[in-house]
């Protein structure tokens, strides 16, 4: 019984490196902040979203108190919405603290609101802006806020995890 034998030619060759090695990537800045938003959680006409601040820099980042948060409309305009600090139906405020946020570490805050509709104009936001410290340029996060006619959000202080 004859069998077939296949011979596969193998070609080996070397390539000389003619170019210089690529430069190393730039080091991350000492002061760098990344903001992320979780999903909007609903409960009996109330809503909440957890915002996370991560230190993506190479140095500790001083963070204290409450974030600066604003609600933006569909065209990016700042809406006339009151920002209260403290606890709400959806979140317990741990109270203001001071943190030396190490590189790679994160803090959270909870933004909550009620979707109550009574008299007046219904307000719906398309995004939130957040800044962790005075003078920092706010970052925009796509978070839809159906505020009803309340015109108000509540923000908890920065914490290592949401209070329960």
TrEMBL record:
Residue ranges of every copy of the DUF4232 domain listed in the record: 40-158
InterPro entries linked to this entry: DUF4232
Superkingdom of the source species: Bacteria
The protein, known as: DUF4232 domain-containing protein
Annotated organism of origin: Amycolatopsis tucumanensis
């Amino acid at each position: 019984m004859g069998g077939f034998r296949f011979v596969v030619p193998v070609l080996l060759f070397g390539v000389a490196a003619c170019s210089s090695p690529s430069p190393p990537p730039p080091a991350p800045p000492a002061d760098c902040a990344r903001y992320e938003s979780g999903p909007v959680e609903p409960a009996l006409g109330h809503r909440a979203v957890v915002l996370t601040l991560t230190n993506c820099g190479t140095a500790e980042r001083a963070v204290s108190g409450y974030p600066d948060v604003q609600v933006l409309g569909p065209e990016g305009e700042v809406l006339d919405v009151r920002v209260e600090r403290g606890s709400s139906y959806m979140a317990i405020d741990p109270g203001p603290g001071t943190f030396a946020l190490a590189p790679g570490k994160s803090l959270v805050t909870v933004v909550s609101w009620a979707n109550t509709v009574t008299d007046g104009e219904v307000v719906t936001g398309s995004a939130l802006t957040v800044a962790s410290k005075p003078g920092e340029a706010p970052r925009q996060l796509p978070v839809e806020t159906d505020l009803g006619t309340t015109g108000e959000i509540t923000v908890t202080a920065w914490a290592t995890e949401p209070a329960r």
